[in-house]
Amino acid sequence: MGIGDLGKRLLIGRKLRSAQLHETLLSKRIALPVFASDALSSVAYAPDEIFIMLSFAGLAAYAFSWKIGILVAFVMLVVVASYRQNVQAYQSGGGDYEVATVNLGRSAGLTVASALMVDYVLTVAVSISSAAQYAATAIGSLQGHQTTVAVVATLFLMTMNLRGIRESGTAFAIPTYLFMAAILAMAAWGFVRYLFGDLPQASTADLRVAPEAGFEQGFTGLAAAFLLLRAFASGCAALTGVEAISNGVPAFRKPKGRNAATTLLMLGVVAITMGLSIIVLGNLMNVRMAESPATQLIRPDGTPVGPGYHQEPVISQLAAGIFNHFPPGFFIVAGVTGVILVLAANTAFNGFPVLGSILARDGYLPRQLHTRGDRLAYSNGIILLAGFAIVLIVAFQADVTRLIQLYIVGVFVSFTVSQTGMIRHWTRLLRTERDPAARSRMLRSRVINAVGLAVTALVLVIVLITKFTHGAWIAIAAMAVLFVLMRGIRHHYEQVAEEIAVEPDEELVLPSKVHAVVLVSRLHKAALRALAFSRASRPDVLEAVTVNVDSEETERLVDEWDRRGLPVPLKVLSSPYREITKPVVDYVRSIRRASPRDIVTVYIPEYVVGRWWEHLLHNQSALRLKGRLLFTPGVMVTSVPYQLHSAEIAKRRAERPVVTPGEVRRGGPAQPEKRSPARR
Fold it and tell me: Which residues constitute the domain of residue 63?
């Protein structure tokens, strides 16, 4: 085992066989933290965004926060009810993409796919950036370094998910349940203290929120209505992640559809309870938030708090007040909230690779994304998601308020199209179904999906109107680019398949003759092996070719060639500009022009080395030459390898005896056995 392979095994663990795929399936108690952590964690930033948007109009607008919270909760209930129909009707893991493709066509499916992929990337960027903000609140030394913290957390998540869905789910289950317990316990204790008249005020309660331009005269008119819609759109960030369960149905144990639907119901109940509790407690404790706290938040003496002020998230302010008599409570809540926000991105790390695999299977993305890695996870998709998320985190400096403006557009596009597809799904089945009980279930499901369509379409319109100029256009542009790109990839694959397809009456046409060319720079063992191999293939014409770059070296080669009496003629190509590739390519093409029905086979001697740095010192001319010759019709390129001593060392290193973990304990041989070629 080489150093690189050893490092890989330490990071992601031992390889799993394809037959062990069933071992990675999830129970409901593990599936909840794996697929629902995104929606559950949204209570850490969705209430903040509602308060921040309302702060544009000053404190008067805060009175609408709980009403907006109820509307968001209603939308979540509708979406959860709708997706409970989806996961039971479509269990292959395609989710919204499959629903849209089957019922509305390929273009609708690609629209959903591009929207979901953008949303998954933004889920990672927003969740991780929010976690970095909480970390900076709890640990003062991290303030100003949120971007670095977010990048490191993204790489950590990527590594954990490369270890496999079951292992990452088990590792993340405990923090997710701790977060749920901490938030619910904080809310319960806060309401108890309120009932006994002992609930303290938030640390920001004595601050005044200065209204922005346009709201100095009060919270009225069209501006107020638009601001309420914008706050509602920001609060709908709480719905992101609901659709991830529909993409992850194959990861559930049987019965898959029922288990996925149950998990969705648990997600909806817990997320709504926590979200509304946070908003109500925020109002009871007079939490103050602002988009520009340095200028909007005013101290009692009338002076702004200034640029040195660090605005704490709502949950941090609530925890500090509710647990003012128990300081560890604050650190527990802040700690598990920061952790859950990191793990929330795990939902995207499970959804994006599966969706990418399905799209790759259908020819819309590179086929490498359809391949499972050593741990039966879609490793290429995981790495791709992490890379895109890091780009966004760095570009927006881990600023949640800026990132969230790009957020939720994609997920509501997929919600709306998916519900439209489900209505057509039930309508199609009702045409042929005659069983009264089954028809009743289908009619009920269609009504639920119709309500879901109406609600999600309305929210989508609101999101587009209120967020377009604030950054949503970037997400829409990214979706359009992805849509065009995937169409282009599919067109390429179809074109290639059509071009290489064998016609029914097509016959095997033999070339008139084979013209073999052996490239020689010096007369050494590698060149002699290439000559021997070319002669063994018995071509019709065989010649060796060298390029005259240095006259003295060429003369020595010709003399030695004649002295050894090699039975292959040597041709010297002129190169006045000391090029190697161009004279060879021109000569090969001239052979083809002279006899188009001939096949030209070019034999290139190559060294096989065992150390990474040796690759930089050998075979560079051969690589360039092969790259040019591959584009020449009727030309075959054959590499003739010659193993150097370092290659033998590498071979022996690869064949060192290994002991499978636990082999002796399971009754296997005490002495390690050499790995067979199949296991290598």
Answer: 29-493
